[in-house]
Amino acid sequence: MPLDSLTTHCRHCGQPLLGAATERGAFCCQGCAGAYTLIHDLGLDAYYDRRPAEAAAPAVADDGDGADPLLGLPDAVAVAPDGSCLLRLSVDGLHCGACLWLIEAAVTKHHPEVQSARANLTTRCLTLRWTGTPAQAVEYARLVTGLGYRVAPFGGAGAGADPAAAQERALLRRLALAGFAAANVMLLSVSVWSGADAMGDATRTLLHWVSALIALPTVAIAGQPFFQSALAALRAGRTNMDVPISVGVLLTTGMSVVMTAQHGEHAYFDGAVMLLFFLLVGRYLDSRARGRARSAAAHLLALNQAPVSVLGADGLPQVLPPARVPLGGTVLVAAGERIGVDGTVAEGVSDLDASLVTGETLPLAVAPGTQVFAGMINRTAPLRLTATASGEGTLLAEMVRLLEAAEQGRARHVLLADRVARAYTPVVHLTALATFLAWVFLGHAVWYQALLIAVSVLIITCPCALALAVPAVQVAASGRLMRQGILLKSATALERLAPIDTVVFDKTGTLTLGRPDLVADPTLAVEELELAARLARASRHPLSRALARAAGPGPVAEGVVEVPGGGLRWLGPQGFVRLGSRAFCGVPDFANGDTDEGRAGPELWFSRCGQPPRRFLFTDRPRRDAAAVVAELKAAGYRVELLSGDRAVTAQALAAEVGIDIVRADARPAEKCAHLAALRAEGRKVLMVGDGLNDAAALAAADVSLSPASAVDVTQTAADVVFQGDGLAAVAETLAVARRARALVRQNLAFTLLYNLCAVPVAIAGFATPFVAAAAMSGSSLAVMANALRLGSKKPRDGGYR
Amino acid sequence: MNSLLFLIPAALLLGGLGLCAFLWAVRDGQFEDLDGSATRILYEDETPLPKRHT
């Protein structure tokens, strides 16, 4: 790290210092200083060398007083029969190899009783195993939180392994088995084909029997996922792609065994295992891509289940899970803590970050009697709440339920591959039946020969390439998107994205950064701004931060008092200086002669003795590439709309800035849904991009939805696609990839259809030897896969796609 | 053709060994965290890391 960055950036978290810290040493806050000391004392300073330059350590939040939510941890510990304890913790802020090393080393360093500590970067989960009592969990968790990471019990279910992960592991084992079998059976088959003339019958039968020995267990084990899915579909009276796959594999294997037993010339074991291998490759990649998105969602939900502290009848606080808080109970909320229940403020004055619930970025001032909701974050001062609803009864839980209902409605979308399979399966089976009848009655063949030919029709039409056509493209597309930080959460998202013709943006936090910035004011004197910034640097309020950012680094005033719900007060050499709301600074509503309400954004007032009050205006700037992305989308023929809950003036101004012509402002959540429904009724396919909880229902009401990773958890859960980074380029990229993927899927389907049109007559005529079948099958599969890979190979949006 | 009698078992044995090793690795959890493993290899405990050149 260069020397100058040491002096201007926090030594622990690397955030730029906002003046305040220079006097306390090179740290931005007490928490970071504490974490640095802890790391230094453990002798783990190498962490600072090891972490990547762009990754900063998590900034440590000051938890303030109040009960410790970690006290609930021992309940989540699983005790094995041999007395060892196991705990899985979800760790927030884990993002590089150095974090893994730091956490593992910190926990094991002075704790010989810890048998193993293993952090997982993919699932952001820490698995701890130790001998002793479950109560020690608190100690370990406190160590990790002391380093600046937030922890919560993983998945709520204690040590229970994730069933989806176990399923994925089973899939990988099957894939390995199928790969092994395919390679070895192919080896034997190639020798049969190449020695077809010289080889004696006995040798060939021996090779067939060896193949059977490998292929039969493989089909029995590796084919299970397909057989189970096919059975489930048939029981429900439907067909899916797994039905022709299962029929094909079983018939191929069965017929090959019969042929081998009769010393026949042709056995199709290679075809059966190769088919399974190719299909399992597609399934495994698909499952991995979606597993990652799923683990991200589970991680977010786990961190929101933090226990709350309730004041018991004996006057002592006790820690309870949010769902078990009694109605009317008194809940203590420390500064910096997330509120876990709905309730009214009984005691205390504070500012709440209500963005999760209302979508509003500016803090909400609360006083006794104010109604607050679960999910809000208490910022400035401790509060006592009287709980009015908890657990499933909260507004937050209600919204999540509404979302789930909307999600289910959307799950009716039928995958293209399944629609093709519905048409394909009966055609294939009828063709095989017709072949059999034709050979028996028209060709006067012996019945078992006719049966053989009919089965070979089924084998050659076995939808290997067809079954790969869609997943291969989806894997390539989701892999490519994931490399750019775009997670596809829903399996059908890509297909639903392709026909989109209308893109609707939310304003705050989506088109804009959702962060206020000071509006430049030419009449503002430098020393005035500097004095205001000295006060502002002492506060974490978003407007104060914006003011401090605009003024640049500098000293901080000593002894600034933060009045919750009001502002900042400081006794300077020239008397009191106040920075805060209009009322706090004692400015009457009509003062300043300034009625320019059209400009109204968030504002701060600044008052000094003997000077007229001064107003600072703030605005929410658009994301840096918002205008470029909107222009690109319009050029690509999309209709772009802005749908905002904000006032018309603000929405119009932003729309003009980024180039959106169609604006709807003043829309409440229900109106947003109605507007989207109206658009869909016009026959449009709508993509909604939004980030607030107030958008969540609208996201679920659109055909497809995108949300930035900075969005609140519930919204991310509702969205089909989540993108990272602070640019909007992901929107255009996702749409481009989806359209490209649709084109490739169509090419693949057309190709497999063509292949079948060529291969089926050969099979009907009775010329389909195992060699022909294997060559045709692998040839078509490889062609389909290669075609799909074209999606991942090209550079993003280099113009080569259009 | 007698050579087949031991060549085929030998080939299957070798392939089977590879398969067993892979299955062991899966069971051992080595495929659980591909991102983490990719960076873990860079860190050797108890030996100081050379300073990063930026």
Description:
Chain B: It holds the Pfam family FixS. Chain B: It comes from Nitrospirillum amazonense. Chain B: This is Cbb3-type cytochrome oxidase maturation protein. Chain B: InterPro entries: Cyt_oxidase_maturation_cbb3. The complex is a heterodimer of chains A (802) and B (54). Chain A has 26 helices and 27 strands. Chain A has 802 residues and is an alpha+beta fold. Among the domains of chain A are: 1-161, Alpha-Beta Plaits; 308-404, Distorted Sandwich (Calcium-transporting ATPase, cytoplasmic transduction domain A); 477-513 and 623-739, HAD superfamily/HAD-like (Rossmann fold); 517-593 and 600-605, Calcium-transporting ATPase, cytoplasmic domain N. Chain A is elongated and about 110 Å long. Chain B has one domain (1-44). Chain B has 2 helices and no strands. The model of chain B has no long low-confidence stretch (mean pLDDT 78). By secondary structure, chain B is mainly α. Chain B has helices at 3-27, 34-40. The chains are: A alpha+beta (802), B mainly alpha (54).
Gross morphology of chain B: elongated
Q: Helical region count of chain B?
A: 2
Q: What's the shape of chain A?
A: elongated
Terminal CA distance of chain B reads 64 Å
Continuous helix count of chain A: 26
Write the CATH fold name of the domain at 1-161 in chain A: Alpha-Beta Plaits
Task: Please count the beta strands of chain B (DSSP E, at least 2 residues each).
Answer: 0
Class by SSE composition of chain B: mainly alpha
Domain Putative metal-binding (chain A): 9-56
Keywords (chain A): ATP-binding, Cell membrane, Ion transport, Magnesium, Membrane, Metal-binding, Nucleotide-binding, Phosphoprotein, Translocase, Transmembrane, Transmembrane helix, Transport
Subcellular location (chain A): Cell membrane
Domain P-type ATPase A (chain A): 303-404
